[in-house]
Amino acid sequence: MAKGSTYMRGLCIVLNVLLAIFGVILLLFGIVANSDKAASLEELTQGVILSVGFGLATILLSILGMYGAYKEQVLPLLLYSVFMAIEFTVLIVLAIIATLAQPKLKREIEQSYSRITSLYNTEAVFQREINKLQQKAQCCGLNDYTDWENAIPQSCFCPPAYQDREDKCIGVPKFHNTEWIRNAHSEPASPEDTEYSVYKMSCVPILTEKVMNYLRILLGILFTLATIEVAAVIAVLLLWYKIHTRTPGTDFSRDNNSRTKYELQPDKMP
Q: What cystine pairs are annotated (predicted)?
């Protein structure tokens, strides 16, 4: 009995260490996703809150589980089982709902970006992020180049020797207003140009896919976490059962090496 209890206690501790690691991963994921200003939408913000909330709860519960398993104390193990079961239920329900709602969620994200009709009047931080995306993904504006009004940034311009210029670029007449985007990443166009050649593709599909990838990664982490939680709760309940089914008339103590000693107690006379 002592040997089986020791193995089960070790298994509980290992599983809760894994849970703590996944809790930290969820926290870091929430921080990274929240720092992406180009993908800052209400839909992603809800995912960030979910990630941080479950991350903190998982870390705290894993500490409780490790403590209860190491000390072999019934109350912490029971509290751990109850709260972990509650977290698992909430987590799996929300994850399933989010998985089934992905097509609808994708449409809502596209509509949210499409409602931003003027990039010129947005915050400078958001402009810089869109500029980086435009240069990397070869797109221009959320809907098209008109989102920048009379301040189309250099990142929208097709290179002079661009191979797919005819298919992926569009000619835009030179604006009378030569005011440029107000951030350090942009350079004014050459005043000799009579027409600008800018990327035809909008950035909404790319941004939408970026947000969806964040949500898919989050769902993957949550489903993996849920699987480990089930194993951890089962292991804790088995440990609790072993504690309560030890041979009657035995007592135990711990030596200096933290090993459990079981000692037979003499029968008590009435």
A: 139-169, 140-158
